[in-house]
Write a structure and sequence with these properties.
3-stranded mixed beta sheet; elongated; single chain; 4-stranded antiparallel beta sheet; alpha+beta
């Protein structure tokens, strides 16, 4: 009987650390594209770059609506617990070895895909989402 219980506990433990589960790393992000005077700017191509904590960055482009709004969907990741633990460990190790330029955890930023200067709203784990993408005077004014 003890052998059966031990086997069940081991199997359940393995299942718990090997089963991939989904979590949201970047929440849904709704922001308004405005000019430097605060006026909404419709039909602007906006690009979101994001990473789930690895160096593999992804991106998506959306066009602002008539009110200047874009809504980027939540970004999720599906990984087993053991992979998450190893990624966290190696991220911390990398931060210890190269503290000047490494970053860990999910992160994202938004920019004007057409190249206009902006305030570059960004998101890091635990940070509040910014809700305005401000297009600074473009082309550059003197």
């Amino acid at each position: 009987m003890k052998k059966i219980i031990f086997t069940v506990v081991i199997c359940l433990s393995l299942l718990a650390i090997l089963f991939p589960y989904e979590t949201t790393s970047i929440p849904e992000w709704r922001l308004q594209v405005v000019d430097s005077l605060g006026n909404p700017t419709p039909n602007v191509k906006v690009r979101q770059h994001w990473s789930h904590g690895s160096s593999n960055t992804q991106q998506e482009d959306l066009i602002s609506d008539a009110g200047g709004f874009v809504v980027f969907p939540a970004r999720t990741v599906r990984r087993p617990l053991i992979v998450r633990g190893l990624a966290h460990f190696f991220g911390k190790l990398n931060n210890f070895v190269m503290p000047h330029g490494s970053s860990t955890g999910p992160r994202a930023f938004v920019m004007d895909a057409g190249g206009a200067r902006t305030n570059y709203p960004s998101y890091y784990e635990g940070k509040e989402l910014e809700n305005k993408l401000i297009r600074l005077n473009y082309p550059y004014s003197k």
